[in-house]
Amino acid sequence: YGGSGTKGRGWRVELLWLRKVRGLPCEYRVGYYRSTADSDDVLEDVNGFDAATTGDAYKSHNSKSGYWFVAQQQLTSHNGDATRGLNIAANATFHDKDTNFIDNYQSVMFVYKGPFDARPKDDVGIGAARIHVNDDVKKNAELLNASNGVSDYDNPVFSPIRETEYNYEINYGFHVTNWLTVRPNLQYITHPGGVDEVDNALVAGLKIQSTF
Length: 212
Fold this sequence. Notes:
- By secondary structure, the chain is mainly beta.
- The strands form two sheets. It has a nine-stranded antiparallel sheet.
- The model has no long low-confidence stretch (mean pLDDT 94).
- It is elongated, with a radius of gyration of 22 Å.
- It is built from two helices and eleven strands.
């Protein structure tokens, strides 16, 4: 894909495998993307040294790429009803470390469809996600802080040291009508932005899905 006004072109390819295990559906995907838009290196300068130390411009790359895996599997049916039951969904993405702030991400979610006979189209889910900041981004921040002679997080010049953020979520989907689902959720986030100094957060949300 690409076109007038864009700074590069990109393409992606995905392989999809559909099958049934013990009569229950499953879906597996693996994909790859590549973009030819110019992207700055997160650590090295134009000469291959640490840009935070030399002060030279960051190296420019003429592409960036990544790949992903997705798996979805229905694990159980509900009293013989295959439209209800426990499902698992998991995915993982990986990006090149030269140009990406986030170099990998993983998540897993368990969803039970039709948990109550009185609400057969509702669903309840619980999941977790891990977001990892590129180690080179962390190194670059450490070098910037050393170059600026700062070590105090509260100093405005200080570059936060980022590592890994974890998200946990529980939600419930109320199937109000055939075209409307209301889904309140509660999330707990540890090390927001991958920064240890940032307080963990408890966040309540509401998602409204409509189909026309």
